TrEMBL record:
<keyword id="KW-0802">TPR repeat</keyword>
<keyword id="KW-0472">Membrane</keyword>
<keyword id="KW-0812">Transmembrane</keyword>
<dbReference type="Pfam" id="PF13181">
    <property type="entry name" value="TPR_8"/>
</dbReference>
<dbReference type="GO" id="GO:0030943">
    <property type="term" value="F:mitochondrion targeting sequence binding"/>
</dbReference>
<keyword id="KW-1000">Mitochondrion outer membrane</keyword>
<dbReference type="GO" id="GO:0030150">
    <property type="term" value="P:protein import into mitochondrial matrix"/>
</dbReference>
<comment type="similarity">
    <text>Belongs to the Tom70 family.</text>
</comment>
<dbReference type="InterPro" id="IPR011990">
    <property type="entry name" value="TPR-like_helical_dom_sf"/>
</dbReference>
<dbReference type="GO" id="GO:0045039">
    <property type="term" value="P:protein insertion into mitochondrial inner membrane"/>
</dbReference>
<keyword id="KW-1133">Transmembrane helix</keyword>
<dbReference type="GO" id="GO:0005741">
    <property type="term" value="C:mitochondrial outer membrane"/>
</dbReference>
<keyword id="KW-0496">Mitochondrion</keyword>
<dbReference type="InterPro" id="IPR019734">
    <property type="entry name" value="TPR_rpt"/>
</dbReference>
<keyword id="KW-0675">Receptor</keyword>
<dbReference type="GO" id="GO:0008320">
    <property type="term" value="F:protein transmembrane transporter activity"/>
</dbReference>
<keyword id="KW-0677">Repeat</keyword>
Length: 323
């Protein structure tokens, strides 16, 4: 039985070798036939060899520009050998060419882990794909968003409650936000531009009361390596949006989600304990759930950090509906 398996493996390798010769002669369709024959002959326990045969078929399809088949054959190879670097790289390339960017970046991330110290090229590729995903998602968001009348006053009030949000300064209104968004899309020198774009999009969604959509943008930011002000702003926004929909109608649900809100404030403090914005917004949450002593403590902390003896920002967006 062992001899029979060894003989079958030899025959499979001969078929592969003949396929390789055809590949070198650019006879890709004929090479595919021989690689498939190798798969049929090869003992099923030889998973690494069978993975190579599938990867070779993918290489032929790549030359023929049959990208869906490239992805399919690489996937088969990786099901047999998940650490097969060549198959990961080839599938990532095909996924990118077919605009499946999120799947492609997952393969590149896996390559970075597998390649370790030699992953310089993959790391660069990861950064480039991240930029493309950011640009694609921003374009889709701009095209598909439903315009809701968010007044300049609502926007101004929202941003007046933050001393430093990490992505925009000064008096803010619709025009300022949209102009900043357009500028960031072309400013390749800003290392945080993707995260700033997410912050603007998330803020728009929040002010339109699309809280789940807003959360998706802010969640991406807090997991990134961006500037601390932007990360604190996003943690604060996650803290207040997690139970914002239930403020007026479902108090029990709001209280159930309260620990999640406080976790986000704690995360913000770990990023920058000296950021006064955290204590102001947490004080508002304390006030809403009737923890008045804690609210006073946080307000005093805010005043201590800002030196504003006259107290707080002029408006508290959290107590009223933003639109």
């Amino acid at each position: 039985m062992a001899e029979n398996k060894e003989l079958l493996l030899r025959k499979a390798l001969v078929s592969k070798s003949c396929g390789n010769n055809l590949f070198e002669r650019k006879e890709y369709e004929k090479a595919i036939v021989l690689y498939r024959k190798a798969i049929e002959i090869c003992p099923k326990g030889e998973k690494n060899e069978i993975a190579i045969f599938h990867q070779n078929i993918a290489a032929c399809y790549e030359k023929l520009k049959f990208l869906p088949q490239v992805i399919e054959e690489c996937t088969r190879a990786l099901s047999l050998n998940p650490k097969y670097v060549k198959a990961l790289k080839r599938r990532a390339n095909a996924l990118e060419l077919t605009e499946n960017l999120n799947e492609a970046i997952n393969d590149i991330a896996a390559l970075c882990v597998l390649q370790g110290a030699t992953a310089e090229e993959s790391i660069k590729k990861y950064g480039n794909l991240l930029e493309r995903i950011c640009e694609k998602e921003t374009k889709e968001w701009m095209q598909n968003r439903v315009e809701v009348d968010v007044s300049d006053e609502v926007i101004r009030i929202h941003f007046s409650n933050f001393i430093n949000n990490g992505f925009i300064e000064g008096e803010v209104n619709n025009n300022v936000l949209n102009n900043t968004l357009s500028k960031l899309q072309s400013d390749v020198n800003d290392a945080d531009r993707c995260h700033k774009i997410d912050a603007i999009q998330g803020t728009f969604e929040y002010l339109k009361t699309n809280y789940s959509e807003a959360d998706e943008f802010f969640a991406k930011i807090v997991q990134s390596d961006c500037n601390k002000y932007l990360k604190v702003y996003s943690n604060i926004m996650l803290a207040i949006t997690c139970f914002r929909p239930f403020l007026k109608s479902r108090e029990m649900e709001m209280l159930r989600l309260l620990p999640k809100s406080y976790e986000r404030f704690d995360a913000a403090i770990k990023v920058d304990a000296g950021n006064a914005d955290i204590y102001f917004h947490r004080a508002v949450v304390h006030y809403i759930v009737r923890k008045f002593e804690k609210a006073i403590d946080d307000l005093n902390k805010y005043i201590e950090l800002t030196g504003k003896k006259n107290g707080l920002p002029g408006n508290c967006y959290f107590l009223t509906s933003p639109v």
